[in-house]
Amino acid sequence: MAVEAQQPAAPARPRPKREREEEVLVWPDLVxxxxxxxxxxxxxxxxxxxxxxxxxxxxxxxxxxxxPSKAPWYFLNLQELLLHMDKAWAGVLLPTxxxxxxxxxxxxDRSRExxxxxxxxxRSVRLTxxxxxYALFVSAGLVIVDAGDTNVSPIPGAxxxxxxxxxxxxxxxxxxxxxxxxxxxxEEGTPHQGIISTKDFAKRLQFxxxxxxxxxxxxxxxxxxxxxxxxxxxxxxxxxxxxxxGSIHLYEGMHLNIPTIMAEQVIPLSTIFVLTLAILYALFxxxxxxxRRDLFIVMFTCVMVSYxxxxxxxxxxxxxxxxxxxxxxxxxxxx
Length: 335
Known about the structure:
Elements: H1 26-51, H2 76-82, H3 87-108, H4 124-147, E1 149-150, E2 160-161, E3 183-184, H5 200-203, E4 205-210, E5 224-227, E6 234-235, E7 244-245, E8 248-249, E9 255-256, H6 258-285, H7 292-316
Antiparallel strand pairs: 1-2, 3-4, 4-5, 6-9, 7-8
């Protein structure tokens, strides 16, 4: 009985070697460039330190708070957000959302096309430029609008009065019991002004309209719903229950302030959401935004430019009392 000879196993194919041009070594390709950049930075920094006198302030005094008092430069954008919205959103939630957004980009956009290449898609350059200018003008414009009267102007002494856009809203009659139409409360002896910032929706805006009896109990059950006084202390369901875990109480005695929520959360966040959808929809309609990579390029550019704009405003345009003024008008006490 013939036995077939066992064929020898084919040798394993060696792993193909990568071409030298495709490789980037840490030394000298990366470290040498970083070393040259650090030397140039050090020389430039020394020259600036010799030629430019640093505006050092007086010694720290725990009994005297500087005006303006500013956060470190890397937190100035968050400090700027604190002037326009709720502190929880400005200081915690929005930064967390931005960081999570940056972290999930590689897990959603998993395409290997043009990976690691600057402007690797067909329309990435124009998308980046358009998104950068859009974020620049929108961020700066919203800050100016929410500041009301500002001294930021290319004309010395000029004042930008964005409150004039809503000056048509009448002033409230302090002698009237109810204001059936929306009005703005002005301080006695001061001229009438429109809405200066979103906080005016919770403080100065007043109106009332009839509601059925029994909806708002207690002293507000007068057949009228008055904004803001009838909605600034709404109890949460079950807030009278004395329940806790050790020293942690749930929401005993907690109330909702609807006017403040509208002014500091709903209006700012809705504005950000709507303006983001607007640029994405516009770029999609003109045929520039077609892939996930395009989408993330636009969103990443808008977030980073907005970060830089808010940091620049907080650093160079905020004077005493956090008022918006031209950088040349900011006076620094050198001691």
